Amino acid sequence: MASYDAPGIPPRITLYTNLDCPWCQRVHFVLSELKIPFEQVIIDLDVPRPQWYLDINPRGLVPAIKFSNDVVTNEIIYESNIISQFLVDLRPSNLLPASLADPAAPLRRAKIQFFIDTFMGKLGGQWHAVLRADNPDAKVDEVLANVEKFIEPLLASAAPFYDDSKELTYAETQVAPFLLRIYSLSNGTYLPTKFKTGLQGLPNFSKWAAAVQEHPSIKSNYNETSVLERTGKMMAKLKAKA
Description:
CATH topology of the largest domain: Glutathione S-transferase Yfyf (Class Pi), Chain A, domain 2
Structural class: alpha+beta
Strand order of the largest sheet: 2-1-3-4
Helix content: 40-55%
Number of helices: 11
Order of helices and strands: EHEHEEHHHHHHHHH
Number of domains: 2
Low-confidence stretches: 1-5
Shape: flat
């Protein structure tokens, strides 16, 4: 990985992760785009968490990071959005400007957070509901209507990334794991194909989504085959319990 070029002692980061977890992928996307080196420890989510990990994170969840630099040693940070925010604040970049970088920076940061919140509420958090719905087609219609009403207008200025940006932004790193899953799973087996085709029919959304999917920091950290396999196992367990 490329070296970290901030002044002082380079940060030492250990990422506790699972490569199939969408919340972990948020952090992987950020680390990849910022080119911050890190050590990786894979946590198996299919078995009870070992005590050594519960000692690090009593919640037993992933992701978590252990962080050290010339000021702090072995600080533990939990939760994907908090870790991601910490990393972009650690190294301001095209992803997210520092709060005082220029007079427009606070507004840009607020707009990015608003987009993430809107996306997760109207789309990113809905694919599981579609997956489990008694009438998936009706649920997809409801979700697509909300995407057209609330998300499509926010992407009118995408160029091709959010808010007239030619480079990847923090917004994409936080919503891409869910965007990619919806596209991967809309194959008629897990999610109705109309889910993907409906999104592709929205001009602003489809142009933006295509750019997100092809960005190297996103594409290199997403394994569609593995996601499909894990979803298949999850659905089999749900059917067995029904």
